[in-house]
Structure formats: structure tokens, C-alpha cells
Amino acid sequence: MEAGYLMRRLYVAVIIVVAVFATASTGEAADYRTRNFLVQAPNAQLARTVGDAAERYRDDLSQYWLGRRLPPWSSPCPVRVVAGNLPAQGVTTYNRSPVRDFQMEVVGTPERILDSVLPHEVTHTVLATHFGRPLPRWADEGIATTVEHPSERQKHEHKLREFLRTRRGIPMNKLFLLTEYPSDVLPMYAQGYSVCSFLIEQRDPETFIAFLEDYMKHPSWTSNIQKHYGYDSLAELQDYWLSWVADGSGPVEKFAKNSALPTNSVQPLPQAIRSNPQPGRPIGSVASNATTATAPGSTAPGSTAPATTLASTEPGGWYMRQKREAGKQPSNDRKPEAIASESSNSRLMPPSVRNNPRYMSAQPQPEQGMSRPSSIY
């Protein structure tokens, strides 16, 4: 009898302790509502900071890319903040037709969430709202990466050279036609970021958006790259881009094909992200011993060839094989729907665009999944 009484008292005590901890845990989490965002974060201060920053990014980045501020959304975008000593990553989903009901998750240290993940994900929402449909994958992720913190962009610069050296680069005529994440997704991020930077730096952000708008209306990359940047084909763009990367991804003037086009006219970043260097500007030279480039695809005499030059000039290299087989390549003007990208069960892979009613844009990290194994909401 006494044993039963003690057990009942112990049971009640356990329930009280669990309830106290549950209440404390719930009390620590906080929501914060702004005009366009509804933030859920571990504490009230972080929720407010993320919410206010998201609004500033939305206004400033839309002004930067589009030349105007977006009108308010009909319903706020839920933002789930997972803060801790975690790799910086994020995911944004939305209904495609029509584009609406954005949902977002941002993961990482508070510092990296605020200076990289949040502006990256907000850029996805700005672009989707403006275009009313998903962008080509390389452009969607490439543009969003240009507004990240220098340390995050530096990772893509280093990875790009690794991918080119190990033959994991993507030919331009395949990169530009991707409608889904490829099975080997990280090269797409690094190369998409680099190509976006290369083109944006030649003109300005609004010209790059106009380039994409024209493609949406008239889906020929060849004619649009000629119109806006002066390159005769994606193959020629690839040659000039490779030479720029081999030269250290620095100033683009000598790699701009059309000398009649104004160059180096990139406007300053919005004040909200002014601490980051301009999109497209290199964070120092990551190509060791790089010298002034002489011509697309060539290396100056006596110089130590960077990884990208080796990748593009070795007889058995990937880019040389692509050049030899250029005559066999399918037309660059095929619509994106004509390209069937590879599928994968990798944890880094967001759901297929075609197989999921909600479109997803995500920032993967090597050997890391999102904080939830499936769609975030």
C-alpha cells in the first residue's frame, strides 16, 4: 500500500517536472509578425531581428534587381528559424500557379542566417514574385548566391575550381537548360553563381533581369546572349567565362565580348547588405599565380596555369572534349522542357519541380541535410 502511494507521488512529480520544462520551452520560442513575414524563432529578440531584416531585404533587393519595390503579398511568408552551430542553409517553397504562399526555413548561426541565408532565400521570393514562375535553376540559385556573405561566396569560388579540375563542370548548353536540380547538385551552385557574377558585372543587375525576361518570352539562349552580352553562342560565352575564371574571376572588362556595351556599371548593393562586397566582385584572387589573360581559353607564357585553365586546355579534359564534340551537340535553342535532368535520392536534393506541387529552392551543404527530412511545412 505504501509502495503504491510512493509510486503515485513519483508519477505526479514526473508529470509536474515535464510540464514545467514544456512550459519553459514553449515560453522561449517566439513569433514575430511583419507586413510580409511571420517568423518563428528560438527567442523573441532573434524573431524580431530576422523579421525586420527580411522586410529590409525584400524592399532593398527588389529595388536592386528590379528597379522598384514589390507590393505586399496577400499573406505573410512563414519563416522558421533554426539557430545554432549549424552549417548555413535554407529552403523556400511556394505554389507555382499562381506564385503565392511562400514558406521559408533558415538554418545556421544567427550571424550567418542574417548575412547570407536570409538574403539568399528572400531573393528567391523576390524573383518568383516578379517572374510569376520559377527561373532556370542556374540563374535562380546563382543570383541568390551573389548576395551572400563573402565567406560563403568564397566557398563556391574554391569549389568551382575543384569541380572543373575533377571534370564535374557542366557544359553551358546543359547548365542553361536545367529545369531540376541535377544529381550532382553542388557544381550547379558554384558554376551558376560564377556565370551570374560574370554577366552581372559586365552590365548591371537590371540588364541581367531583362536578359532572363527576354528568354522567358522567347526561349532561345543564343539569341538573347547575343542581344544582351554580344556572345555569338553559349559555347563562346563558355570560352570567355573560363578565361575569366582562370584569370582569378577579377574585373570583367577584357572578357566582355561586345566592347560597345557599357561595362563595370554594377550599382552598389542595398544598404541592408552593404557589408557584403558587390555581387560579382571577387573576394580576392583564388587562382594562385594567375596573370593577365591573353585570350579566351589561353594561358600567358610563363604563367602557372590555374585549375580552370588546366581543365579547359588538357587534351583529355572535359571542356576540350566538349569542344571536339560541339558539332554533335543538340541545338542550344531547345526549350527547357526538352531537357530531362537526372533524378537522385540524395539528401541534398529538393523534390522534383514536376513531381511536387510546391516549387522548392534550397541551399545544400556537403554531407548535410535540411533540419527536416521532408518538405518543411
Automatic annotation (TrEMBL):
Biased composition of type Low complexity is found at 287-313
Q: Where is the composition biased (Basic and acidic residues)?
A: 322-337
In which domain of life is the source organism classified?
Bacteria
Q: Where is the composition biased (Polar residues)?
A: 263-278, 362-377
Annotated spans, Disordered: 263-377
Q: What is the protein name stated in its UniProt record?
A: Peptidase MA-like domain-containing protein
Species of the source = Novipirellula aureliae
